[in-house]
């Protein structure tokens, strides 16, 4: 569903990553950096092909979230096709006005075709109020340098119509790449058996 929607003076628009003009990209990067006090200069190169949800008030960008496909490698070595959500940001001057909740409600509607929603959270209670659940089990990330490293923030999931009937749990690798090399971290040592490909 690509388009615009207004909700109490909040207009939302979805853009595919290639459709951004240079100025739009800079506005999104500035918003995310203001919200998180972190460098978001690589936002548009880290997730090629991502979908971006933009929220405007009076034609001013006030909120953003994006999602792209990533794999979650489960303990039984099966993969879940996840809609990986990140860069959920609201203008610091307009926070606590319900913008973030409206953003995530629209994201949840847009990713219903995925097997599961996933993200890492700095504000776990906020996402729990919106129906997200904290992952039960160790979680590591497969990086581009083929290393596995522990996630620095809690992993959360949103169960969708295509999600497994039982709540997924246990050790998981996010975005695993093959081949991978396990580093010396405690969490990474706990999931080396997940690196093996399923028999057959």
Task: Give an overview of the whole structure.
The protein has helices at residues 22-36, 43-46, 99-110, 124-129, 186-189; strands at 4-7, 10-16, 51-57, 60-73, 79-90, 116-120, 133-134, 139-142, 147-150, 155-159, 172-174, 181-182. By secondary structure, the chain is an alpha+beta fold. 20% of the residues lie in helices and 34% in strands. The protein has one domain: Gcn5-related N-acetyltransferase (GNAT) (Aminopeptidase, 3-Layer(aba) Sandwich), CATH 3.40.630.
Helices and strands in order, then pairings?
Layout: E1 4-7, E2 10-16, H1 22-36, H2 43-46, E3 51-57, E4 60-73, E5 79-90, H3 99-110, E6 116-120, H4 124-129, E7 133-134, E8 139-142, E9 147-150, E10 155-159, E11 172-174, E12 181-182, H5 186-189
Parallel strand pairs: 5-6, 8-11, 9-12
Antiparallel strand pairs: 1-2, 2-3, 3-4, 4-5, 4-11, 6-10, 7-10, 8-9
Describe, in short, the structure shown.
By secondary structure, this protein is of the alpha+beta class.
- Globally, the shape reads globular
Q: Helicity range of the residues?
A: 10-25%
Strand content: 25-35%
Question: Any low-confidence stretches, pLDDT <50, length ≥5?
Answer: 1-7, 176-200
Average pLDDT score: 84
DSSP helical segment count: 5
CATH superfamily, called what? Gcn5-related N-acetyltransferase (GNAT)
Count the beta strands.
Answer: 12
**How widely separated are the two ends?**
38 Å
Give me the secondary-structure category.
alpha+beta
The helix-strand sequence is: EEHHEEEHEHEEEEEEH
């Amino acid at each position: 569903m690509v388009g615009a929607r207004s909700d109490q003076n909040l207009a939302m628009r979805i853009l595919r990553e290639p459709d951004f003009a240079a100025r739009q990209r800079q506005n999104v990067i500035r918003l995310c950096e203001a919200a998180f006090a972190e460098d978001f200069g690589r936002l548009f190169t880290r997730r090629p092909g991502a979908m971006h949800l933009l929220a405007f008030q009076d034609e001013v960008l006030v909120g953003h979230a994006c999602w792209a496909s990533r794999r979650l490698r489960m303990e039984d070595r099966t993969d879940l096709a996840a809609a990986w959500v990140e860069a959920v940001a609201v203008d610091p001057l307009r926070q606590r006005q319900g913008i973030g909740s409206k953003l995530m409600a629209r994201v949840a509607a847009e990713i219903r075709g995925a097997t599961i929603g996933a993200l890492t959270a700095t504000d776990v209670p906020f996402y729990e109020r919106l129906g997200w659940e904290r992952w039960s089990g160790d979680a590591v990330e497969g990086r581009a340098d083929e290393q596995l490293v522990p996630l620095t923030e809690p992993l959360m999931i949103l169960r969708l119509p295509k999600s497994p009937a039982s709540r997924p749990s246990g050790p998981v690798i996010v975005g695993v790449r093959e081949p991978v090399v396990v580093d010396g971290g405690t969490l990474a040592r706990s999931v080396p058996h997940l690196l093996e490909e399923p028999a057959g």
